[in-house]
Amino acid sequence: MKVLAIAFSEELKSLLSSALKGDAIHWIATKDQFFSEVDNYNDGMFSAVVCELSEGPEFALEVGQVMRSLCPQTPSFACALDKKEFAAKTIRKNGYSDVFLFPIDKGSFLEAIASAMTPEALAKRSYKRIMSPDLQAKSKLSFTTYVHLPLNNKYLVFANKDEEFTDKKAEKLTKFQVGSLYVDQKDSNRFYEYVAEQMKSADNSLSETERGEKLKSSIRSMFNELFDQNSEESFDHGKELMESCRGLVSTYIVGPGQKTDFHTRLLRTIGGVGMDYSHSADVSTLAALFGIALGSKKVEELAIAGFFHDVALASFPVEYGYEINPQWDEAIKKTFLDHPQQSLNIVKTKKMILPPEAEKMIFQHHEKFDGKGFPKGQAGDRILLEAQILSLADQFHYLTVARPGQARMSPLEALEVIGKNGSLGPALLNQARSLFNKK
Ligand SMILES: [Fe+2]
Ligand SMILES: [Fe+2]
């Protein structure tokens, strides 16, 4: 079955073409073409329908309504390349199963497409990240697991399907500090069945993989709300948003369900592949972990600041990177230099009242101890200690995330780099180093 792709711009066309085989896409270029064919459509004809908002919202909303009545069982997605078109609630009300804002939703969009299609339709195998602690030694796995090598972007078999997951394999993961593995996307259900079986005997009701996924999707809903052009801007609504944000922190980040020690959680949190919502989720987790380990009293604030620190970069093309590049033109540079303040502005527009310390952490997360950071170039103790901890968590994530063509950096190597760039004060740096040396 094909995906029905409506009104795609060149940019989205090349993205979808890279994910799916050519014969798995039915392109509709114009309104006229859509209306001339639509009478033949029914459920079972397409794996999914995707409409870009390139022809303006009216047409996209009409497509949503028409498809909902003709093919109610077929998943339908809307894609917005422009923030101004992103009226998520209205779009969903008009029949769409999900709405994606680019570039931040690129990864989520590709996942949604991969799970709607049969594996044969995919141009390349699609992998799902799982957390290694979810695999129990001596159990039998009904799916093959892989390790990801970012240097040549390869996935190597780690343990074969139907083999026992031996103690030796489990030890190997610990020894080489591998916090996450991958399974073929088509084996997702097998993986969930396996963890459900394993969890039966545990007191915890969710696997680590599912926890991570839930946190990521909750952050995505929260950001959706922040970016929604038509969403409510009242103090009550802002309060509600803030409460759900605190709920996420206590459920997934610093709550009683989180018993594992610093190093185990650290390894699990780093080494992901995406820069989208996982950046937000992981920086928040890392900031809280470092906060606890370094004796900060502002752990919840650190986690909250981690969620929102880069909200304003949602429309910043990922391929530009996250460090100031001398080749950027003035406009791009300005967007980047302004993002700490802009992130706060986005949150404020929705009338969310952040704890004042969290606000300061977000504003100062790119300041450096040596005074060479931005936006203000503040130095030394003028930078809140927790803003430095957030900066540590943020840089840690950038440095350890898997990047195609680059070897994965270990936590110690990352700390080494951070130690040399002037961003942290000597006292904090020593404390952070001692966290790793103790081991
Ligand atoms: Fe940032
Ligand atoms: Fe960041």
What does this entry show, briefly?
With 439 residues, this protein is of the alpha/beta class. The protein has helices spanning 10-19, 31-37, 57-70, 88-93, 106-116, 167-175, 188-199, 208-227, 235-253, 262-269, 277-293, 299-308, 330-349, 356-363, 385-400, 411-420, 426-437, and strands at residues 2-6, 25-28, 46-52, 76-80, 98-101, 127-131, 139-140, 145-149, 154-159, 164-165, 180-184.
Give a description of the structure.
- With 439 residues, the chain is of the alpha/beta class.
- The chain folds into 3 domains: 120 residues, Response regulator (Rossmann fold), CATH 3.40.50.2300; 73 residues, no CATH class; 230 residues, Hypothetical protein af1432.
- It contains 17 helices and 11 strands.
- A 5-stranded parallel sheet has the order 2-1-3-4-5, sandwiched between helices.
- Strand 8 and strand 9 form a beta hairpin.
- It starts with a strand and ends with a helix.
- The site of one fe (ii) ion (FE2) has 5 residues, from loops.
- One fe (ii) ion binds next to loops.
